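Sat 14:20. Reprocessing the chain from the morning session after the first attempt stalled halfway. Input below, unchanged.
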Amino acid sequence: MIFTLFLSLFLLLKTNCSTFQECDSECIFEPVRLTSTNIGSFSKCAKVCSFLKIDHSSNLTHEQLTEAFENLQTLVGGLEIVNTTFTDAKFLNNLIRIEANTSPVRISNNENMVKLGMVNLTTIITYNFAVSGNPKMAALNLPKLQTVDCQMSPCRPVISMWNNNQNYCMTTEEMKVFLLNNRIEQFYVDNLGQR
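Finished this time. Tokens:
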């Protein structure tokens, strides 16, 4: 237990230092949780380094997030959208690439979310992409997604989409991204329909 905790802390610190070397200092957003008190300091760079968490305590509107992320095209670090009341994540519409090698990309427990709606996202680099516990989510809505992978060796990503709406659907093109990718270690989906 102590070894696991130490190893996790070591990897986080090591990752934070090496990951954030990819960004200019003005393009680094250090706070993990984005809130109404720190959103003004979110970088206007196209490539931002941050372990970004948006949750119920963020106290932000969809409009505030859309404005904060208007230039964001690449996020290096990690992304979690958890326990919010948003109906979608369209505030990340300009996001093209997520590079989260040692962090998950997690969209979970958002009671009103009906779709992701990140319509320009083409690439997710992570060891774990999870979309779960969103009871109203009926569609993934990532129409431009082409790549889900992990760049660390011997990493192979795990994809899990479960406990969403019973009518949860993915398009044929979205399914192909996951099913035709031999690098994916595990792909788990429940309640899946197809459009």
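Residues 2-194 form a domain with the 24 nucleotide stem-loop, u2 snrnp hairpin iv. U2 a'; Chain A fold (CATH 3.80.20).
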